From TrEMBL:
<dbReference type="GO" id="GO:0005615">
    <property type="term" value="C:extracellular space"/>
</dbReference>
<dbReference type="Pfam" id="PF07645">
    <property type="entry name" value="EGF_CA"/>
</dbReference>
<dbReference type="InterPro" id="IPR009030">
    <property type="entry name" value="Growth_fac_rcpt_cys_sf"/>
</dbReference>
<keyword id="KW-1015">Disulfide bond</keyword>
<dbReference type="InterPro" id="IPR018097">
    <property type="entry name" value="EGF_Ca-bd_CS"/>
</dbReference>
<keyword id="KW-0245">EGF-like domain</keyword>
<keyword id="KW-0325">Glycoprotein</keyword>
<feature type="domain" description="EGF-like">
    <location>
        <begin position="50"/>
        <end position="90"/>
    </location>
</feature>
<dbReference type="InterPro" id="IPR049883">
    <property type="entry name" value="NOTCH1_EGF-like"/>
</dbReference>
<dbReference type="GO" id="GO:0005509">
    <property type="term" value="F:calcium ion binding"/>
</dbReference>
<dbReference type="InterPro" id="IPR001881">
    <property type="entry name" value="EGF-like_Ca-bd_dom"/>
</dbReference>
<keyword id="KW-0732">Signal</keyword>
<comment type="similarity">
    <text>Belongs to the EGF domain peptide family.</text>
</comment>
<keyword id="KW-0677">Repeat</keyword>
<dbReference type="GO" id="GO:0008201">
    <property type="term" value="F:heparin binding"/>
</dbReference>
<dbReference type="InterPro" id="IPR000152">
    <property type="entry name" value="EGF-type_Asp/Asn_hydroxyl_site"/>
</dbReference>
<dbReference type="InterPro" id="IPR000742">
    <property type="entry name" value="EGF"/>
</dbReference>
Length: 175
């Protein structure tokens, strides 16, 4: 029997004496907990359980993540955002603050909550990290210089060289 265990409301975890009823043995759950609307010390359902405030996904607002805690919750900025004040976060510009992990030759573009890396023309890859951009061998495309020329791959570019007999180089192409 619970009556043998609970002498006061405070003996029940997360419960308290009902403040609306003076001189009472009626208990209620503390804020952030749920249970019976009002219960006595001898009630078999005399328990208060945590309310998951984060179940309501709008409790924190945009750009914030909710973490349920015992009897409450905390809002923290999502990845890619920094604290502006207690209820708002602002976009973190990883490109400007140097925290973006783009390749040394890649362009960095800040987005809302994240960033993107882009390799320059003549390179291929994700643009991310030390191996993010590698030289694009344009000469693998047999038609890049035309059928009557040879192609020389350069770092980040290419050059059409050595026109076949009977052809001349006009603006990089053999005619």
């Amino acid at each position: 029997q619970l009556a043998d265990v609970h002498k006061e409301c405070r003996d029940i975890p997360n419960a308290m004496t009902d403040p609306s009823v003076s001189m009472s043995n009626q208990c209620v759950c503390k804020d952030g907990f749920k249970g019976p609307a009002r219960f006595g010390l001898d009630s078999v359902d005399a328990k208060c359980v945590d309310i998951d405030e984060c179940f309501n996904q709008n409790v924190c607002g945009a750009d914030l993540e909710c973490m349920n805690t015992q009897g409450s919750y905390q809002c923290t900025c999502k990845s890619g955002f920094t604290n502006y004040n207690a209820t708002h976060c602002e976009d973190k510009d990883e490109c400007k603050d140097g925290s973006a992990n783009c390749h040394a030759i890649a362009a960095c573009k800040n987005q809302h909550g994240f960033y993107q890396c882009f390799c320059p023309q003549g390179y291929t890859g994700s643009g991310v990290g030390s191996n993010g951009c590698t030289d694009l061998n344009e000469c693998q495309n047999a038609m890049v210089c035309g059928v009557d020329a040879s192609c020389k791959n350069l770092i980040g570019s290419y050059e059409c060289t050595k026109c076949d007999a009977g052809h001349i180089n006009v603006k990089g192409f053999c005619e």
